[in-house]
Design goal:
132 residues; mainly alpha; 5% strand; single chain
Length: 132
């Protein structure tokens, strides 16, 4: 059970990271009056933990990780962006097959001085394919 002075922070799930950042800013302001050499070893406030859901207790390390937690809107945007990448990459890949084939045929036609020759005259079949 916590002893001494206690502080409680209640926030909605949309502003958890902002609340943790505000706490860290508050703690930094408390440390400003002390010399820089002593700031790293001093802890003006002590966090005993946090509770996210009933029966889910978080220690100090888990509490500090909450500062980097994205908001619900940021998560939705990330998921939407990732879902959008799949069909986009698939469409680009499908489009590249005929495009590369067309480039190859055009390069072959441009590189051939004899317009009467066919592809098999310029590039004969490999020996393994010819044996079949």
């Amino acid at each position: 059970m916590p002893q001494g002075e206690n502080a409680w922070v209640f926030c909605s799930e949309d502003c958890i990271a902002d609340s943790v950042k505000a706490y860290h800013d508050f703690e930094k302001k408390l440390l400003e009056k002390y010399p820089k050499e002593k700031r790293k070893e001093m802890h003006p406030t002590a966090i005993s933990g946090a509770v996210m859901e009933p029966n889910q207790f978080l220690d100090m390390a888990a509490f500090k990780k909450l500062e980097k937690m994205p908001t619900k809107l940021q998560m939705i945007a990330t998921i939407a962006r990732l879902l959008n990448q799949v069909p986009t990459k698939l469409a680009v890949s499908i489009k590249q097959v005929p495009t590369k084939l067309a480039y190859g045929v055009k390069a072959l036609a441009d590189g051939d001085d004899n317009k009467d020759a066919i592809v098999s005259d310029i590039f004969p079949k490999p020996a393994a394919a010819a044996a079949e």
